[in-house]
Amino acid sequence: MLKKISQIAFAIMMVLTLASCKNTKQKLQEYVVTYNKNIAPSFRAENVTLTTARGYINDNKIELRFETGLDQNEGNKLASSISFVKLIRSMIEKDQIPRQLIEEGVQFDVYFLANDNTVLDKEVLTGESLKYILK
């Protein structure tokens, strides 16, 4: 009788454990909602005026956009290519861009935009590119 109760209790615990686990797509969706609700409103970085996240569940991809007040010119492109990588590295270290999602195969397309919404710099974060950015 005790053995039967133990088996039933174990089965119930396993079902509850499996039901509480989230798959990558659920984590992706949860990250986008959390980013836009909690991180973006209080986000502060040099030249960044607005940041937003957009999720593409079917493509297993998240797009992060950083809008700036900078003009689109070669000087700003060069300067932003240096500062943008530092910003991304800092966000990964603070877990504002979760390394776990990248390691699970979620691609982050990260854009640094000029004041006219043209691209100053773009980084694609994958498991492969992560090791170069975190150097």
TrEMBL record:
<protein>
    <recommendedName>
        <fullName>Lipoprotein</fullName>
    </recommendedName>
</protein>
<feature type="signal peptide">
    <location>
        <begin position="1"/>
        <end position="19"/>
    </location>
</feature>
<keyword id="KW-0732">Signal</keyword>
